[in-house]
Amino acid sequence: MIEAIAPRGPDGEGRFEATGVHFGHTRLAIIDLANGDQPMVVENGRLAVTYNGEIYNYIELRQAIEAKGYRFRTNCDTEVIPLGYAAFGPDFFARLNGIFAFALWDRDSGEIFLVRDHFGVKPLYYGVLGGELAFSSCARAIAHHPAIDRRLRPDGLREYLQFRYVPSGRHFYEGVETLPPGHMARWRDGRLELTCYWRPRDRMNGDGLSRDEWVRRTSELLEDSVALQLRSDVPVGVFLSGGVDSATIMHFAARHTNEELAAYTFSVGDDVDEVVQAAVIAGRYGGRHVKVAMNGEDDFAGFYDAIACMALPVGDAIILPTYELCRAAARERKVVLTGEGADEVFGGYVHYPVLTKLDRLSRRMAWMRHFAPLVPFVPVAVLDRFFDYQASLGVLGRRKVAAMIGALGDRGQLQRLVGAAIDDDAVGEATTLGPPPPAGDADLSLPAVIRDGIATWLPYQILNKMDQLSMAHGLEARVPYLDPRLFDLVADAPDDLILDNGENKVLLREVMRAAKVANADRRKIAFHLPMETVYRDRLVAMCREWLAPEVTARHGILRQPFIDRGLKLLDQGEFIASKQLVAMVGLHMWLDAHGGTL
Q1: What is the mean pLDDT of residues 54-75?
Q2: Strand 177-178 vs strand 12-18: parallel, antiparallel, or unpaired?
């Protein structure tokens, strides 16, 4: 099990054993490099902790703990976890501001607590196996338990193939569970009890403050979040694109460090490449800019490694540049700040206005579904003007638009259609896994769409991807936008500071304008690898290797006619076909790397 997590902690290894309790740890040393070894045992052996992550407010928490009479042996953030528990009990965990997954053992009570951070930045898997509790930051570690036979869950596989990630967070293996974000699990007397200690609040659409006051408060809190997350005894870098999110991080980070900030940008090699803009931003703040790019003919050789390192795969080609970006940064840094979470907190995704418009149409003009049969006759070029994508919708996209119009009045189905690469009707053609469960109803209002994204897309796609790909190289990716204090503040902001007249992330852009960050008005450009155009030949080569009939027959999950049809559509430059094929390739790679049978 320790070997399975070794890439996450290349700086040290430790073990702790007591009667019936075994903790293992590999360390990524960032704070108090000399004294922070784990598992950490305090209070004369009463408490032991093993944890992955960082507690950003550890200095402030330490002062509160010391006021209760406890004394620290180290300057490491780890020690606040057991001593905070000793001082305040398990309610203390909700006071932690950071990214964390930890296990804490209390000898006196015989309890073990498993705790995961508010948004799920750090993964935490567990299994109750033969009356024992097994847990890890890495599901592969739990899979070494003899009670795990690596039997696959059809529902998890189907979710992945439909959505290119697993929205429920279900692991593919039966018996391996995911502790949800903001949750604590208490193990006592052979029973596990889950408790939610924090959940994101619904948006309130408040109007009690002036726009200037909203900007001031948001700016102060975001700057404080960046300053806290710069706490480190090793140099910190920044993942920098040419966009709004990372430029704002760079701006505030430059104000709170005396060290040179290394800024890392990946060049995707197409007409929306952001390397030039990122270099300008880095130079403005005195940063050293590092360009990371594909390496020529063999530039997809690392795709298997990127998939193989993930506890749960993400079927998006963007994992390869993210993996290479992390590899490059890890040569020089152990910590980077990233812009993940800004779209969820400030409303940046293009599908937010799409879903809210579909919601209004469903409530007011559901009769428009009768026009769905006409959509296939509309030229794709005309439809492209109404959708803010970086690729043409293509024939499959036109069919998706027709299906969405035909589903007006059925909000649950609309929600599934917007998010799915393989929709409900096609999943039977694509897989042997059977039909998905009924969609049920859904709330497509802006507050509900943001809430659902934070519960699914954020932890199990965005954060899962970044954590797994960075920690595979011993690199910690910090996310200043995902400070619970910042989230709670913005949740009270008026809706027109989120989306307004076609502009997204209005409040964040106002913060940037006030700070005089140059690209405040730049439209969002998704980090997209153009597999259907620039890298089509590479995708075809991967499909020939990983979606060949003999491979498909060996795993018994995908249907070859659907694969062959997708390859024909890829030849025509179909955007959605490329998404489907990448996800299917990723599934076969993951199964070859990890094993598993239906």
Answers
A1: 97
A2: unpaired
Please calculate the CA angle 397-503-389 and round it to the nearest 5 degrees: 20
Please determine, looking at this structure, whether the domain spanning 2-196 carries the CATH number 3.60.20.10: yes
Tokens 């290349």 map to which residue? 10
Q: Is domain 211-347+468-515 annotated with CATH 3.40.50.620?
A: yes
Cβ atoms of 274 and 299 within 8 Å: the answer is no
Residue 239 near residue 325, CB atoms below 8 Å: yes
Q: Where are the alpha helices (H) located in 104-209, listed in sequence order?
A: 139-142, 154-163
51 Cβ partners below 8 Å, 6+ apart? Answer: 38, 78, 81, 100, 101, 102, 103
Dihedral angle over CA of 215, 218, 221, 222, nearest 10: -100
Give residue-wise pLDDT tens across range 341-365: 999 999 877 777 778 778 888 778 8
Let me know: does 530 contact 574? Beta carbons within 8 Å.
no
Give the phi and the psi of residue 139 in degrees, each rounded to 5.
-65, -30
**Interhelix angle for 411-419 vs 394-406, to 10°?**
170
DSSP 469-522: HHHTTT-EEE-GGG-HHHHHHHTTS-GGGTEETTEESHHHHHHHHHHT-TTTTP
* Length of the chain in terms of residues written: 598
Q: What is the dihedral of CA 509, 226, 167, 461, to 10 degrees?
A: 90
- From 146, 576, 149, select the one nearest 396 (Cα to Cα): 576
Residues 22-39: pLDDT tens digits?
999 999 999 999 999 999
Q: Which two tokens stand for residue 345?
A: 């907190």
Which two three-digit tokens encode residue 590? 């993951």
Q: How many CB atoms lie within 10 A of CB 257?
A: 15
Domain ranges of the chain: 2-196, 211-347+468-515, 536-594
Kindly report the pTM of this predicted structure.
0.93
Residue with tokens 């049978």: 597
- Examine the pLDDT at 519 and tell me if it is beyond 90: no
Residue 297's pLDDT is what?
61
